[in-house]
Specification:
The protein has 411 residues and is an alpha/beta fold. The protein is built from 15 helices and 13 strands. The strands form two sheets. A seven-stranded parallel beta sheet has the order 3-2-1-4-5-6-7, sandwiched between helices. GO terms for molecular function: transferase activity.
């Protein structure tokens, strides 16, 4: 089979939706191509089962956003979090943010693995390079490879806007430089949503570009079917994934509790994933406004299998996006919610997410307590049809990506 060099952050087995996506797609593509994988050791130390060779780069791990997955902090720990937050806002931290692990430092730190990759290319014919981003470190490696092998065509899969500063400690200048590099080097760009497509097509004037939406692993949800929640006395809401301060967990909790009171329901809110200190403080604050009809469970980070089981057992799946800045990408978890046939309450004003979900697979609410209440009530009184969910299967995605690769390499 023809060899493809894959550059990315995650491989299978890491508790992150990008890892689930990687495994789901590579399950099919690895039967059609031989993949040489280069990934971040932080997001997968073991060799990928879908590779014939797997090189690891090291970015020393992402700078933690002062995350605390243990909700029951003692006084000393709470003081420590407060001090860290003050440091985060300081001038010194801002300097650190702008200079942490820049391109020169990264290349120097990973010169051996870059040499190993180039040596492999020298001895083996690589038909194309497939890079998946927004992580910038694979872009640094791509640039080094391209200096030595400019003839190898490049396909870039963009899961979110590179220069989007949400959940990153990189300066805007670094992100923009990486974005420009991808636009210059890529022979073809695959976008995971209309928002990303519109940005690169209309704002950045990219020509060879197309949309291949995200999806879910079909075999994980084959037995799932839609179950209305109208007649249930107890309703479980599950948010699976990280929650940062900008995602407004406080208003969501208060909105759920208002719904519980108005509809005389017992509501359980399960939060599975990393929570930063701001989100934890918002949860503490929200607890002061609820009356006991709602229970909040902080479940912490779990394995992909445990996350899958949580999604299958929930009644209503929860998607929270940032108030601003997340209007381009559609969270990958949305497609798993669709695959599981779980009605979705999405607290978001992102037009691409709204067009996918609202009145189809669930409801979208503004970042306002009363609107969250109203749209949960709509879910209670609506029957949803998930019969067309298989159009989002990983196999469909893999088939489309294979067509792009074959077009680029001339098959």
């Amino acid at each position: 089979m023809k060899k493809i060099l894959f550059l990315g952050d995650c491989i299978e087995g890491y508790p992150k939706i990008a890892s689930v996506r990687y495994a789901g797609i590579m399950k099919y593509l690895s039967k059609r191509f031989d993949f040489v994988v280069v990934n971040d050791s932080f997001f997968g130390e073991n060799r990928s089962q879908y590779s014939i060779e797997n090189f690891k780069f090291n970015n020393k791990g992402p700078v933690k956003n002062i995350k605390e997955t243990n909700f029951n902090l003692n006084f000393k720990q709470k003081v420590k979090v407060k001090v860290k937050n003050i440091i985060k806002k300081s001038y010194i931290f801002k300097i650190y943010k702008k200079n942490q692990m820049n391109e020169r430092k990264f290349i120097q730190k990973n010169k051996e693995v870059i040499k190993d990759v180039c040596d492999f290319i020298e001895k083996n014919k690589i038909e194309a390079i497939f890079i998946t981003i927004p992580s910038i470190y694979p872009v640094y490696i791509l640039k080094e490879i391209n200096k030595n092998y400019p003839e190898i065509p490049i396909i870039a899969e963009i899961r979110d806007i590179i220069a989007n500063e949400i959940d990153t400690n990189m300066s805007k200048k670094i992100l923009l430089n990486c974005e420009d590099s991808i636009i210059e080097l890529a022979d073809n760009i695959i976008c995971l949503s209309e928002g990303i497509y519109d940005y690169y097509k209309n704002v950045k004037n990219v020509r060879n570009i197309e949309i291949i939406k995200n999806g879910y692993n079909t075999e994980d949800f084959e037995e799932c079917s839609y179950k209305p929640v109208m007649d249930k006395d107890k309703i479980v809401f599950s948010h699976i994934g990280s929650i940062y301060g900008g995602r407004n967990i406080k208003d969501f909790i208060i909105g759920v509790d208002k719904f519980a009171i108005k509809e005389n329901k017992k509501c359980i809110i399960n939060l599975m994933g990393n929570l930063d200190s701001i989100a934890l403080e918002d949860i503490e604050s929200a607890k002061k406004h609820i009356n006991g009809n709602s229970i909040i469970n902080i479940l912490g980070m779990k394995s992909p299998d445990e996350a899958l089981l949580e999604l299958k057992n929930t009644d209503i799946s929860v998607i929270l996006t940032h108030k601003t800045g997340s209007e381009y990408a559609i969270p990958g978890k949305v497609f798993e919610c669709i695959g599981a046939c779980k009605p979705i309450i999405a607290v978001s004003e992102d037009k691409n997410l709204i067009s996918l979900i609202h009145n189809i697979y669930g409801q979208c609410a503004k970042h306002e307590v009363d609107d969250i209440l109203i749209n949960i009530q709509k879910i209670l009184n609506t029957d949803y049809n998930f019969d067309d969910r298989f159009k989002f299967s990983r196999k469909n995605q893999a088939d489309k990506i294979e067509n792009v690769i074959n077009t680029i390499i001339g098959d």
